[in-house]
Amino acid sequence: MANEKVDVVVVGAGASGSVYASVLAKAGKKVVLLEAGPDWELSDLISSEIWGRRIKPAGAPILLEGRNPMTYAAQGGWGVGGAALHYYANFPRLLPTDFRIKSEHNRAHDWPISYDDVAPFYDKVARETGVSGDAKAEERWRPAGEAYPMPPMKTFRNGNIWLKGFDALGIPMVPAPVGMNSVEFNGRPACLYDGWCHVGCPIGALANPQITYLGEARKAGAEVRALSTVTRVLTNQAGTRVTGVEYYDAKQQKQTQEASVVLLAAWSAQNPRLLLNSATDKHPKGLGNASGLVGRYMMSHHVASTWAMFDEDIQNHMGTIAVQYMSYEHYPKTSHDGAFGSSFITAGFALKTTDLAMSRADLFGPELADYMRRAARNLAGIKTFGEEQANIENRVELTSAKDEFGMPLGKLIHSYDQDAVALWNANLEEGLKVAKAAGAKEAWSSRGSIPTSHLMGGTIMGSSVAASVVDSYGQSHEIPNLWVAGPSIFPTAGASNPTFTIFALSRRGAERMASQWATLTN
Amino acid sequence: MANIGRRGFVKGATLGALAFTVGGAEVIMAAGEARARGVPFRLLDAHQGETLEALGETLVPQAREAGIAHFIDQQLSVPPHESLLQARIFNFRPPFAEFYRTAITAVDEGGRKLFGRDFAQLPAADQREFVDRMRQNKIEGWTGRPGAIVYAVLRADAVDVVYGTMEGYEALGIPYMPHIPPEKRW
Fold first, then answer.
1. In the predicted model, what is the mean pLDDT of residues B59-69?
2. Which of A444, A419, A416 is nearest to A431 (CA)?
3. Phi-psi bin for A108: left (phi > 0), alpha (psi -120 to 50), beta?
4. Do the bridges between strand A2-11 and strand A254-264 make them parallel or antiparallel, or are there none, so unpaired?
5. 3-class secondary structure for A69-106?
6. Percent helix, strand, coil in chain B (nearest 5)?
7. Chain B within 8 Å of A379 (Cβ-Cβ)?
8. What φ, ψ does residue A389 adopt, rounded to 5°?
9. Cβ–Cβ below 8 Å for B163 and A317
10. What are the angstrom distances between the C-alpha of A114 and each of A139, A195, A327, A384, A427?
11. Is A71 in contact with B91 (Cβ distance < 8 A)?
12. What is the DSSP string of A193-230?
């Protein structure tokens, strides 16, 4: 079944798709968002870790392989709002060094843009969505920019108790920037600090897409079609332009949505899966894949978690899931001897019972029950996110297995290299030193398999057609009316939580698309 | 978009309970209550239910009484995209029932090899010894997903039913502080 042609069809109603939909709908474009999952409302966001699993991925699974398989389902989204419906809303930004790692260290890729190109959009997103933090305090590590629109969030003993330890190691900690309201903002209430952010904030204190860009897009006339699974991007016969997408609707009926522009905003694994599955005789390796790099350079952040028991009741149920303190002190790529890559240090976050149990995954039986009673009062953690270098062997590819619509399943192959392992170990060792200096009664590292957090890459940006998939705005090098958004266009990962950068790059790309509209529709 | 107020302003909480079938009718109740009332399993057979209860109780004390087998059984009976099981977060490919069936088979085979009986029939000390070996992938001839994965998933399920509920928080003295509380104290 064919639908009336629209200006833009957006595949995915998460963080990046919502920004584009908002900007373009406000510019008068007819926008349709196709979202594979349900159309969640704030009233669906029950405060329960068990019930919160409803907003985690549930469509066709991405098959996971490699030495360090991605924790895909824990990270991804399912439904309108995407992963940003349950994100932690930590809003650190990338730093200038992230954009020129090739020039400075002869590693991976330079971005085709600099920090200065993105910085105005960080500021713009902060003004639009609301960010709480202390920009001046951060500027000891980064170029100056605008102040955040809200003061920092409250801190709690579970965060403050770490400061002595960091101070002892010469690591300055400053208030963390978060996409949450420390005070009322744009008619949205201030946070209540009860730590249910990660299952979806129903009061509007956390900047999820429903109450920010997607809400604005809907007001401006954008249409959201939930339970609509896109399987192919369609092209004209010459293969020079995309003409729309094929999808299956809520009744599992095959539909076609024609559009002047197609934007893929379906996260880092699904964007390449769609491009690869849209191969034609003119694009035998997949759309936009003359370089052979669609699906390549998948990246993650490794996370070094340090846990500690303190003698006092530190009220670890209070606060937000976002962090209270952060530091870029070890962000320079060569901060740790014998390791390479940026580290982003964080401390102070609310814990739920699942977190308590997972902090000692080896315990079971009566020992676990005893531990849970102690951890409920005395446990706190710090986490250091570490950069993984872009590696062409980390990839998404299609398999022979098919989903319910006959579309090949994607396989995500991911392994950390020795740089990542060395950096993770260095950060774990440092965490134990911090805990000891903070006065912890006992402290331990989360060892075992190296965690994967955040998913990036797969359709990386660059200036060279041979060495990248899209330009710095997300426009395909090969097909001008095919665009890609989200973390899949990151050419390197940095160590900062990615969503603030996703919002900023999407805002930049959307403005570009609107300003260049005439060139896209010719 | 729904207009939701501050904490305690409850809307949409009808989604928060589990539906069990009693006498042919759907009844909303917590998993522990379903067990106490002897609600029949939907998919599990009696031995599978007994084994999951024994495994759950070994992993997390009070998981049996909290209804771990009824929780898993009920969740296996709903479409995968509605499932609340940790199997979803572990990125298992549906149907999730296959994981539990093969895990129970592997546990029973291991129990017979090591101690001469199915897991559920073992003394508590042997069950504990078995789980500790399973956790470390130290059971010879193990089939299916690695023992460490079975341990992680079943432990997480047991943590859910014992500590993930409002009662679980209360037992630990942790204020639950919901914005939208799950119904039936889930």
1. 97
2. A444
3. left
4. parallel
5. CCCHHHHCCCCCCHHHHCCCCECCCCCHHHHEHHHHHC
6. 55, 5, 40
7. no
8. -80, 145
9. no
10. 17, 35, 22, 25, 27
11. yes
12. -BS-GGG--SSS-B--GGGTHHHHHHHTT-EEE-S-EE
Q: Tell whether B95 lies on the interface with A, counting CB pairs under 8 A.
A: no
pLDDT in tens, A130-161: 999 999 999 999 999 999 999 999 999 999 99
Q: Looking at residue A451, what DSSP letter applies?
A: P
ipTM of the complex in this document: 0.93
Instruction: Provide the 8-state DSSP code for B136.
Output: T
A288 vs A274: CA distance, rounded Å: 11
CA distances A153 to A114, A127, A181, B178, Å, are 30, 16, 8, 20
Q: How far apart are CA A146 and CA A153, in angstroms?
A: 18
Model-level pTM?
0.95
State whether residue A189 sits within 8 Å of chain B by CB: yes
3-state DSSP: chain A helix, strand, coil percent, rounded to 5?
30, 25, 45
Contact A192 B169 (CB under 8 A): no
Residue A369 per-residue DSSP state = H
What tokens appear for B56 in the block? 């759950």
Q: Given CB atoms, is B43 within the 8 Å cutoff of chain A?
A: no
Neighbours of B110 (CB within 10 A): 21
In the stretch 70-99 of chain A, residues with CB closer than 8 A to chain B read: 71-74, 78
Look up the CATH architecture of domain A2-521: 3-Layer(bba) Sandwich (3.50)
